[in-house]
Amino acid sequence: MQIHQIKFISEIISNDIKNRDNYIKDYKILELGCGDGSGVNLMRNILKSQYKEFNIEVFGLDYQTESKNVVKTKYNDKNLIKLKNTSQKYPFKKNTFDYIYSNQVFEHVEDIDLLVENLQRVLKNNGINIALYPEKNIIREPHCLIPFVHRIRNKKIKKILVKKFYPFFCKINNKKIIDPEIMAEYIINFTFYRSRPEIRKAFNKKGMRVSWPVIPSYATFNIFGKSFPKKNKFTILFLILLNYMWVFWKSSLFISQKKVY
């Protein structure tokens, strides 16, 4: 779990709740790619501490082969759900969730049309999907840390480069090194980077509006876990510039919404 990112997403959700009608007291939230459930637990604690009088439920969903019972026992959380494969439909009824969020998940989704279909089905009308993810035009591949290697289409060349340079870039970034062969296979078979037009097209086909908002606190929240005070125009300009640098180096943010037409 990346604590700073979950806190940043919780701030987006919290601000949206504040702007909604006060009579709405029940909210259901889903984390895609929940892993062991740490993010679900943190999101629940943050929002419940802010809205003590509200009924807020947070669920987690993932496609890992890890036993569902192991996850439940570890966190004693009946809201954590594991699916066997990515072709399964989300086990929720239509119009269930007010918010769905994910952190570094979209680059691992091979069938984005199926993902969007699931999101559109389980989101409520005007429900919001929040995604932090690395774009295709990011400078450094975030898993093996090699610049631009994810843009290479030839799988053989990509595999050779990852096996050759992955240990070096891990070493200079003080990251733990795994078997280069395993990393190369992971990059080839389990990462799927997309451009903004590709993402917009997938969501628009299901009638969902997509935007990439410029939030000045995005980069600072990811780095330091909090937003900096925006006291003057210079500070805001600096934060926006830092935000764009972060998008090209680390990850981007997009928000999609299920609209009623």
Describe this structure in words.
The chain is of the alpha/beta class. It has two domains: 201 residues, Rossmann fold; 39 residues, no CATH class. The chain is 43% helix and 18% strand. It contains nine helices and seven strands. Helix 3 links the parallel strand 2 and strand 3.
Structure in a nutshell:
With 261 residues, the protein is an alpha/beta fold.
Helix content: 40-55%
Unreliable stretches covering 5 or more consecutive residues = 66-71
Strand content: 15-25%
CATH class of the largest domain: Alpha Beta
Mean pLDDT across the residues is 86
Strand order of the largest sheet: 3-2-1-4-5-7-6
CATH fold-type name of the largest domain: Rossmann fold
Structural class: alpha/beta
> Count of helical segments?
9
Report the biggest beta sheet as strand number plus sense, adding barrel if it closes.
Answer: 7 strands, mixed
Order of helical and strand elements: HEHEHEEHEHHHEHHE
Q: Which second-level CATH architecture of the largest domain applies?
A: 3-Layer(aba) Sandwich
